[in-house]
Amino acid sequence: MLEQLQTQRDRMNEVQGKIGRQVIGQESVVEQVLYCILAGGHALLEGVPGLGKTLLVRTMADVMEMQYSRIQFTPDLMPADIVGTEILREEPGVGMKFVFQHGPIHGNLVLADEINRATPKTQSALLEAMQEAAVTVGGQTRQLPKPFFVLATQNPLELEGTYPLPEAQLDRFLLKIQVPFPTRDELQQIVQLTTGAAQETLTSVLTGEEILHLQATVREMLITPELVNQVVELIFRTQPDQDGAPDEVRRYVRYGAGPRAAQAIVKVAKARAFLQGRLNVSGEDIRAVAVPALRHRIGMNYEAAADQYTVEQLIEHLLQSVGL
């Protein structure tokens, strides 16, 4: 068992290494996306244009031998443009017949670029597919391929012509990952890499079937009841209407995190423990994943904005309050 785990971790280390040769810097972003894949969830990447979000997703698809598809969200995009539709086609020897034309959602790794530029109707079509891993067209339900991951991006600066995701839809994303601007040294490496000779062609390290096996392994990672209790207590302390809620929560929070938040923290912490080479989840794992798992699940009010009190500051305070 231990030997098998070590082999699996070595494969994931090789995946990280190959991605790192194409995507300069962003080690934390790459790790968090891998947590999502190992935990079987979806990720929301937030950052200004040009930081390599699309390159990261395409590189991961190459390294993991997954079918990659990209959806560029625009205000005129319709649900059928994502999930597919039935079209009338002439079939040899049969005549005219309705056949299903697959949409770009039918892939293993789907990049939903600038998801907040599409209308709520189209966003809902994508998020339904994320939740159910299936689409329904013409009264027939079609399963999406496995493994299936959606990595959505949004630009936090441009708000004109955008449709912010509602809270219930944000909750479908396992993590919200902030993509930072590169350092001076990283930017220099990026310029040298992208303006010089052609980049190396990546070869795949993992197959889709192997990823499914890795997900099953991650779910078997051990976590103590005490840590689970601390996670549950953390979620309860985000609720402003609960007895014993901290003063900061009562003052600055409109709504707290729901049950999916606790599930997300535990699942992602197991993925982190796996990549760290351990069989069990530690308090450090919980602490490391709490911010990306909670930042999009807690609604801050206008007073928090006026006092420049961020959701990340609140999460750090709550972690300390529960002993993490």
TrEMBL record:
Swiss-Prot/TrEMBL keywords: ATP-binding, Nucleotide-binding
Any GO MF annotation of the entry: ATP hydrolysis activity
Highest taxon of source: Bacteria
Domain AAA+ ATPase, residue spans: 39-183
PANTHER family membership: MAGNESIUM-CHELATASE SUBUNIT CHLD, MOXR FAMILY PROTEIN
Sequence similarity: Belongs to the MoxR family.
Protein name: AAA family ATPase
Native source organism of the sequence: Tumebacillus avium
